[in-house]
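User: Batch of two.

Assistant: Item 1 of 2:
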Amino acid sequence: MAIIKCPECGHQVSDKAPICPSCGVEIAGKTNRCTRCGEIYFRDEHFCPNCHQPVNNQAVEIAQGTNSPQQPTVQPQNTVQSIPVREHTVNMTDTQQERDDNRQEKKKKRNFTAITVSFIIALLACGVLIYSYSNAKARTEKEEYEFAMKSNDPTVLQQYLDNFIDAPQEHRDSITAHLDKLKKADDAWNIIAKSNNKEEIIRYLNENPDSPHKTELIHKIDIIDWAKASEENTQEAYQRYIDKHATGEHYDEALATLNKLKAKELNQEDRQMISEVFHKFFVSINSRNEGELTSSVAEVMSSFLGRENASKGDVIDYMNRSYKEGVTNIIWRLRNDYKITKREIGDGKFEYVVRFTADQDIIRGESGSDKNTYNISARVNPDGKVSEMNMSKITRREE
């Protein structure tokens, strides 16, 4: 075995190798070695491509390493015999040139094929890259579109339109319509933000239920309704505010104010208490019951029948003087025509100013009786005690 140069591509290769590992041409049994210059060439060539030595049985060396027996070279006897040899050499040279041209043509074809294949592979690679890029761009566009459609920020929508000029037309149309809607809502907000008209604010909220200013406008309505309730300052006004603003900023204040107004308002319980106080007072005089009488009045009365800072003793003294000589009985009858004014005199404490009329019958035994009617003005303190009382006779009743 010997190492030779491939006659096709020139790479080092074993003369026993079936083919050249570089170019794939057959080697084993297909090459000769020139006996003159040692050039390796294909066996189907008729002369050495290097020195143009003709191929014959005496001048052939097989590339496998065996030499053919050489025969004595016949020397030409004269010049006439050498002429055919030259002609043959020229013909062989032409043939070799054709083979060289064919070899070069094969090389060119192989090179062209390789270049063509490489170009096709490059085109395919570019196509794959372009396809991948297009898909990635389409995915990005879709994600940005979905994000923009969920946004209420005009900047986000405008950025989509600027970044995706080649986006599907239906996407751009949807984004444009959404952007126009937001711009109109923004213009409407600029107007409503300066308004204190409750009806206009409510209409805006109905037309823009998803407005980012919804919380702010609800708070604004709360302020408007509270201002109106405070201005009216009635139970009805505060109750309206409470009904409409269960989570309002002034809910607790409205409820406390409402309770105060209700406390100031005269109710049935107040009327019942007033009636019982004066009924007890006058029945005690009728029955001459000092204990019941004094339990119905304050320790000190600011005024009692014109006497200032009157005591309970002054009240008892009045009752006793009423039963002067000859008077067997005194009967007071209340007409229940109370006119009551409820006044707050402290935190949750109230007094009552009361006006009413009462009939008095003074019985004198066999001598007859006196019948009188009085106007009575009185005051009842938060403890339910009479703290002031004055009376004036308005008529003398006849039998």
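Item 2 of 2:
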Amino acid sequence: MKSIDTIKNNFEKRGFSFSYHKEVKEAIEFILQLIPEKSTVGFGGSVTVTESGLLSAMQQKDYQLIHRALISDLPVDVIFKKIYESDWFISSANALTENGEIINIDGRGNRVSAILDGPKNVVIFCGQNKIVENIEKGIERTRNIASPKNCVRLKKKTPCAITGKCMNCNSTETICRATVILHHPTSGTNVYVVVAGADLGY
């Protein structure tokens, strides 16, 4: 893997903000300092956000959090609309390339659409295990590591949930419906890539 300094430089040349933190708790503290309290904060589905402790840490602060796990009295479509209208959006990514690109493969598309054209401030929080050499390796990682594990987690009836690897299926339950590669932040959006020196999520 290229040095973190080189990777940081590659992301910043593309217009992203990039920070690396050796400890997960340091990365979380950085995000808490970055996002002003009283902000509305929407979330994309992310194992990283929950297992790292970020969501729990934000619940202890004065934020208005819009996360499907925290809201039970609203229809999903209403929750997604509120997320798009938030001040900030927090998600992870399926892969980050050493060249400074962000790769996501989605089923419904609410996560990638919020990153592309939702809140004006976006935080992409990842463990260093998400960093890959290039776009090809990123898509390979997503299809053969992230997607099979997510299909198991979501109880999807797909071939990869059984085999543990992508079978290029046409299953009605596939979560690989849209591949989005962010080469630069979309116009008018501030994207903060925050990487922790640990393995987080899928």
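The chain has a mean pLDDT of 96.
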